[in-house]
Amino acid sequence: MAKRVTKYRAVFVDRDGTLIREKHYLHKPGQVRFIKGSIEALRELRRRGFKLVMITNQSGIGRGYYTIADMHNVHKHIQSVLKKNGAAFDKIYFCPHAPDARCKCRKPALGLVKKAARALSLILKKSFAIGDHVNDFILGQRMGGKGIMVLSGHGAHEHREKIKLKQISETPDKVVKNLPAAADWIIKCGAR
Questions:
Q1: Annotated catalytic residue, options 14, 70, 132, 136
Q2: Cα–Cα distance between 94 and 82 in angstroms, integer?
Q3: Do residues 152 and 17 make contact, with C-beta atoms less than 8 angstroms apart?
Q4: Of 54, 154, 59, which is closest to residue 99 (Cα–Cα)?
Q5: Residues 136, 7: Cα–Cα separation, whole Å
Q6: What is the per-residue pLDDT across 28-63, written as a single tens digit (0 to 9) for each?
Q7: Does 5 map to a domain?
Q8: Roughly what angle, to the nearest 10 degrees, separates helices 38-47 and 68-84?
Q9: pTM, to two decimals
Q10: Catalytic pick from 16, 70, 132, 136?
Q11: Residue 42 burial (10 A CB sphere; 0-12, 13-18, 19+)
């Protein structure tokens, strides 16, 4: 008799401008400032049964501005704070490549999402992606789930310049102020 595998819903969260305040090429733990309410939002999503995955494009590595070790130190700090608050990520994935590298891991490519789905037994069509860039919500839609754009970080600018002016054809499933508002919407969707 085959063992039955439990499948989980997930929330894929962008790092800079979504979870923590935007800081140009952030690479030191001391530069991390959590956006108000973001830790509590993650804790509530976890409490509701969602797996939490951070997926972040870190082109500063590919451009030579900081090292993978620098980024890992930042992520260790983030995880430490989140763990103390019952909101740690189940997995953290990153793309170190510059935008022109044409890799399979840079959002909105699905390489890292597929890796997370295998590692955590995820149901992607019932999952969500949140971020302050167009590529973040497109990632959610490409995986078959929902994509949410937050207006924190670069979100207000990207929303105004790319979506409202119709520079791209895609639109987010939901536009919200920040990560706490995104979590509220996800919880309402999950209750349906």
A1: 14
A2: 18
A3: yes
A4: 59
A5: 23
A6: 999 999 999 999 999 999 999 999 999 999 999 999
A7: no
A8: 70
A9: 0.94
A10: 16
A11: buried
- The question of whether 70 is a catalytic residue gets the answer no
- Which tokens is 48 given? 């509701």
Contact 23, 16 (CB under 8 A): yes
Domains in the chain, number: 1
- 3-state DSSP call for residue 115? helix
Q: How far apart are CA 181 and CA 163, in angstroms?
A: 20
What is the token pair recorded at 103?
């890799």
Q: Is 2 helix (H, G, I), strand (E, B) or coil?
A: coil
The verdict on residue 3 lying in a domain is no
Q: What is the CATH number of the domain that holds 19?
A: 3.40.50.1000
Q: Which helix (H) or strand (E) holds 81?
A: helix 68-84
Say how far apart CA 13 and CA 171 lie, in whole Å: 18
Query: In degrees, to the nearest 5, what angle opens at C-alpha 33 toward C-alphas 107 and 71?
Result: 50
Tell me which residue range forms the domain holding 85: 10-190
* φ and ψ of 191, to 5 deg: -80, -10
Whether 184 is a known active-site residue: answer no
Tell me the pLDDT tens digit for each residue of 135-146: 999 999 999 999
Question: Is residue 86 situated within a structural domain?
Answer: yes
Residue 91: inside a domain, yes or no?
Answer: yes
